[in-house]
Every structure is written in C-alpha cells, then in structure tokens.
Sequence to fold (180 residues):
Amino acid sequence: MPSVVQPPAIQEPIRVSPMAHLPPLAKKVWGFLKRSPIGALLIYTALSLILKENYPFSNYPMYSNPSAERPYYTVADGNGQPIPVQKLTGITCPKIGKIYRKKAEELAKKHDIKAKDLPPAMVQQVCDEMFVQLRHEAKGKNQVLPEQLQIIKSYISYKDSKVVEEVELIGKETLTPQAR
Fold:
C-alpha cells in the first residue's frame, strides 16, 4: 500500500505590529489617544486643516480673527427710541444688519466702490429701500410702525477696561406718508 504523504503544515506568517518598534512611552501615548476624545479631536483638526472649507469639515475662519468692535443695527422711531422691530415686522435686529450690508454691497458693486465708501446719498437710498420693506412687512402683520423711522448702527468695544458703545445714525426716513 502506498504511503500517504501529508502536506506540510501551514504556518501562520509572523506578524510584527508597527507598535513593536516604538518606545514604551510612545506606546502609552498612542494607547491613550486611541481611547480618549483628544485623539478624535486631533484627527478632526488635522482633517479640517487639510480639507479647509468643505462641508462638513471647516476650519471656522469667522472665529479665528474676531474684530475688536462688533456693530449691531437697530430700528428706531423719529426720536431715536428703539422700536420692537421683530414684533412689528418679523425681522430681527441681526437681520436688519444683514439686509443693510447686503443692499449697501450691491449698490457699491454697481458703482465700483467699497460699501464703506458709499456717499451719504447712496446710504440714504439703501435706508429708504429698507424703510419700504419694513413698512411692507409690518402691514402684512397688521402692525403700525411709527410715523418716521431711523436705522442706527452701534459699535460695542472694550477700551480701558470698560465696555464702550458708540452710536451712529445711518439713515432717517425721508419719504412722506403720502409718498409711501
């Protein structure tokens, strides 16, 4: 009877962990980073810096260099007293600032200048457009706005260990009630 030859036993390859060559302290640090939220934060940070402003990753440049002054806009009556614009029109104060900046930038672009360099007549034009919009929104909510409106820009800054507010009148409603 012929003898049966057994094939040689398959041996598992010897696997060497990449961690085997690291010093003991590096192994401990690597183990800590794998288990802690700090490791995830480091990975997310690296990816954000590599991928830049591609959703859902972002390096959030809007927070990286905040300005020392933060302007905000309010709508006031003819005497300069702020009105509850959100209650009367549905438009919030932050939205007032966005509308103003957007309209000013669009008008400035048409005239090939910067929004901050708009002459007073053009700033008033932007404000008049906004007053019409505010009155339209108030009418849609069955609300009545004061006879005359103003848009006021306030700067809040921190100077000499104190919070300082500087107020600037941007525009005053010039249209008569009949022209509205």
Observations:
- The beta strands are 70-77, 149-159, 162-172.
- The helical segments are 24-35, 37-51, 61-64, 85-89, 93-110, 120-140.
